[in-house]
Each structure stands twice: as structure tokens, then as C-alpha cells.
Amino acid sequence: MITVSFWNILWTVVNLLVLFIAFKIFFFKPIQNIIAKRQEEADEAFKAAKVKEDEAEAKSLQCDEKIAQVEQEKKQILSEARKSADEQYQNIVAEARANASEIKTAAATEANREKEQIIASAKKEIANIIVDATTKVVGGQTGAEVDSNLFDEFIGKAGE
């Protein structure tokens, strides 16, 4: 049978206290030290990761700024290129218009000159025809005065 005695309980309590102190010194303390070291390592890794994240964010902001700057430069270059192209276009169009105007003026002048030559040639031919016709009609009377009078009469009738 089991008897409960004061000494038995006391030695059990002392044994438990000794075991508790031994466990605390030899078991819990090393485990807590290991846990503390691991916690410190985890904290250091977290701090390093936070630093790396901050650096990455700063670099990302720098890249975004550079991209915005490049976009602005691109817009400026395109704007300048468009202005230059428009100026060249306007110059080419103005030059083409000036050339067209010169060509048109030259063609009109040439047409007028040819018209005057044709009219002068026609007048000479008509005068010769009239002289020949009047020579045949008058029969032998020739002279500048007769030719001039007949010519003026013919022109007068032709104009009517």
C-alpha cells in the first residue's frame, strides 16, 4: 500500500525543485539563448531586407524620374522635328509657288510674243495678198500711196 509521509513529500518537492532548477539551468537557458540568437539573426535579416527595400525603392524613383525626363526630351525633340519639318514644308511650298508664278509669267509673256508675231506675220501676208490682188485689179498702178490706201480700206472693211 502506498503511504504518504511528510518526508516523502518533502523529498519529492526537493527533487522537483532540483529538477526544475537543473532543467532551467541546463535546458531552458540554452534553448532561450538559441531562440534569442535566432531572433537577433531574424531581426538583422529583417533590417537588411528593409535597407535593401529602401534602396530598391529609391532606385525605382530615380528610374521613374529618368524615364519622365527621357519622355520629356522625346516630346521636345519630336516637337522641334515637327517645327523643322513644317518650316521646310512651308519653304518648299513657297518656292514651288514662286517657281509656278515665274513659269506662268514666262509662259504668258511667251504666248503674247508669239501672238504678236503671228499677228504681224498675218498682217504681212494679208498686205501681200492685197497688193497682189490690187495689182491685178488696178493693173499696173503701183506705189506706196496706192498700197497704203488699199490696205487701210481693207482693214477697215475687215474690222466691220
Describe the structure.
- By secondary structure, this protein is an all-alpha fold.
- The chain has one domain (7-159).
- 93% of the residues lie in helices and 0% in strands.
- The protein is built from two helices and no strands.
- It has helices at 6-138, 144-159.
- Helix 1 crosses helix 2 (144-159).
- It is rod-shaped, with a radius of gyration of 62 Å.
- The protein starts with 5 loop residues before the first helix and ends with a helix.
- The mean pLDDT is 87.
Give the number of DSSP strands: 0
Give the count of structural domains.
1
Structural class: mainly alpha
Beta-strand proportion: under 5%
Calculate the mean pLDDT score and round it: 87
- The coarse silhouette is rod-shaped
Helix content: over 70%
Tally of individual helices: 2
Question: What is the succession of H and E elements?
Answer: HH
Distance between the termini: 170 Å
| Rg result | 62 Å
Summarize the main sheet: none
- Low-confidence segments, given as residue ranges, are none
Task: Please tag this protein with its features.
160 residues, mainly alpha
Task: Summarize this entry quickly.
The protein is mostly helical. The chain has helices at 6-138, 144-159.
Outline the secondary-structure elements.
Blueprint: H1 6-138, H2 144-159
Helix pairs in contact: 1-2
